[in-house]
Amino acid sequence: MEFCSYSFYFIAVSSIIIIFVTTFYSKDFTNIFEKSKLQLEQQKQVENEVLLPFAMEEEKECNVFEGSWVYDETSRPMYQEHECPLVEEKITCQAHGRPDKDYQHWRWQPHSCSLPSFNATLMLEKLRGKTMIFVGDSLNRGQFSSMICLLQRSIPKHAKSFEIHEPRFIFKAKEYNATIEFYWAPFLLESNCDDFYYHRRRTDRTVREGSIDVHAQHWKEADILVFNTYIWWMTGFKLKIIRERGKGGMEEMIEMEAEDAYRMGLKELVGWVEKNMDPTKTRIFFVTMSASHSMSWEWGGEKDGNCYNETRLIEDQNYWGSYSRRNIMEVIKEELSASKVPISVLNITQLSEYRKDAHVSIYQKHDHPLKPEELAHPQSYADCFHWCVPGVPDVWNELLYTKLFFP
């Protein structure tokens, strides 16, 4: 009887304690439960995003190409120039005496969202067993060099290789069985500028119509293709086009305006993509024109100046240099949007327009000894087309990374 009384007393007290704790701490328990639930949902969302293969983005809620540059000394640059021995000497500005580093610290911030942080390990994992090829001119090679620099720090020295078999530059991450290449084809079509080492000697440029397969046979097995072409078409003169006449193999030489010739090249690219690429397995990108800053009067600078000694950004959000031709942008839009196989456009033009501070300028390896008159006037030989690395091409690759893996 006494035992039962104690049991009843114990149960009653326990019940009172439980009611007390539940009453006063129910909100905390609810918060803990809701927090755990939220964490699980967030983790699931992240896992779903990470597991996306080559995400085809169709949402237009955020245009990542519209934004502004933000100075960031914390997360920029994403690597140091000396940490990337594989980058081409032409764009290693610090090694060639550039005294300032502010150009390395700018981050691109879209107006209505943020870019995902570049994760080299994630990208390498997604590239496992795959091949990515950058095809185009030296600006595309700069983006290729940037991509290697972004990835190679996550790969042990013994597990990576770099080889040159002109016109191919091949980087391999052996443990991932992943390959990243650059293929020199400045017109995408066959031309008299296809020799990588001697193309600069060609002042009279000639392109063969209907010849994309000459180069494209080397791209067929790619899982990701990143194309660019622009600067070589813009000679200021008509381009010479070799065209077959009739069925007898006879050829004729005609001249085309730059816009018409460029449209011809893009039509051939689209035709080849539609015929050879499987959109369920391959992603195709086209990078728009890179900005040049060769005439400083366009942004209110000196009459005879250019990008030489420029260390500040252009702040006018509507600035558009004359080198970037709007009619060519229309051609890109018209021709690529007509493709039956999706071609994602990386519109780098406007965001690059603001960066007059980030070009190679005079800080590069030169192909020949500079003349006294050149040394006396540095702006006369400043390169205002190509970009220092680290720098602007890293942002192009952040945008590529975003479009690849995050809708």
Architecture overview:
Helix content is 32%, strand content 18%. By secondary structure, the protein is of the alpha/beta class. The strands form four sheets. It has a seven-stranded mixed β-sheet, with helices on one face. Strands 7-9-10 form a three-stranded mixed β-sheet. It has a two-stranded antiparallel ribbon with strand order 1-2. Helix 5 packs parallel to helix 6. The longest helix is centred in the first third of the chain and has 50 residues, at 2-51. 35% of the residues are buried. Mean pLDDT is 86; it is low at 1-13 and 16-57.
Features:
14 strands; 18% strand; alpha/beta; 407 residues
Number of helices: 9
Low-confidence residue ranges: 1-13, 16-57
Distance between the termini: 72 Å
Oligomer: single chain
With strands numbered from the N-terminus, the spatial order across the biggest sheet is 4-5-6-3-8-11-12
What is the overall silhouette? globular
The total beta strand count reads 14
Secondary-structure class: alpha/beta
Order of helices and strands: HEEHEHEEEEHEEEHEHEHEHEH
Return Rg in Å. Answer: 28 Å
β-strand amount: 15-25%
The average pLDDT score comes to 86
Q: How much helicity do the residues have?
A: 25-40%
Helices and strands in order, then pairings?
Layout: H1 2-51, E1 67-71, E2 106-110, H2 120-126, E3 131-136, H3 138-152, E4 160-165, E5 168-173, E6 178-184, E7 206-208, H4 213-216, E8 224-227, E9 239-245, E10 250-256, H5 258-276, E11 283-287, H6 326-337, E12 344-346, H7 349-353, E13 359-361, H8 372-376, E14 383-387, H9 392-405
Helix pairs in contact: 3-9, 5-6
